């Protein structure tokens, strides 16, 4: 892996996981030393973060981690609805039913547990559903747009504090999406996705304030 790629991946992960919080200054000297790279690849990494919208350039401060606000959440979900609802509809027409039937069963199992240790496993399962839908849609433009969007959604997820009860409910909502796709019912798949996104947005907006204040 190139030094700039290494720095980019490390910084992006730290931003998504809130180890680098909104407003944190990404000083070139400090970050280059911390990541064990020279300043040239570090600058390349910072430029990529700015292009991704994860960092911004501020006069007098340099590169800082970008903010996450309620307004940003609304904007992200407007795009998410457009992409994911249509993706679910297309996937239901094209997908291999057995793949999504199996995912449905695994989400049903995940929905029975609110154990904090299962959270990362749940997110991996949700990522598997995303990739399966992407494969069924087979549209590189939609996939690229979603790939960029999901980085920002991961930040928002941490903002809402990974509430165990919400994760269990979300697992059942994902099960309904997978079930509709397995049944090859485009409109039900789209409606199930729309319902999931509505509940996700409401939860985030109701729980984000305490994280922003800490």
What does this structure look like?
With 214 residues, this protein is mainly alpha-helical. The chain folds into two domains: 3-65, Arc Repressor Mutant, subunit A, CATH 1.10.10; 70-213, GntR ligand-binding domain-like (Four Helix Bundle (Hemerythrin (Met), subunit A)). It is 75% helix and 4% strand. The chain has nine helices and two strands. The chain has helices at residues 3-16, 28-35, 39-52, 70-94, 97-110, 119-137, 140-159, 164-182, 186-213; strands spanning 55-58, 62-65. The protein has a two-stranded antiparallel sheet with strand order 1-2. A hairpin with a 3-residue loop joins strand 1 (55-58) and strand 2. The relative contact order is 0.14. Mean pLDDT is 90; it is low at 210-214.
Helix share, percent: over 70%
> What's the architecture of the largest domain in CATH terms?
Up-down Bundle
For CATH, the homologous superfamily of the largest domain is named as GntR ligand-binding domain-like
CATH class of the largest domain: Mainly Alpha
Global Rg: 19 Å
Query: Are there runs of 5+ residues with pLDDT below 50, and where?
Result: 210-214
Biggest β-sheet: strands ordered side by side in the sheet: 1-2
End-to-end gap = 35 Å
Secondary-structure element order, as H and E?
HHHEEHHHHHH
How many structural units, i.e. domains? 2
Shape: elongated
Strand content: under 5%
Indicate the CATH topology of the largest domain: Four Helix Bundle (Hemerythrin (Met), subunit A)
Number of strands: 2
Mean pLDDT: 90
Report the sheet with the most strands, covering strand number, pairing sense and barrel closure.
2 strands, antiparallel
Number of helices: 9
Helical/strand content category: mainly alpha
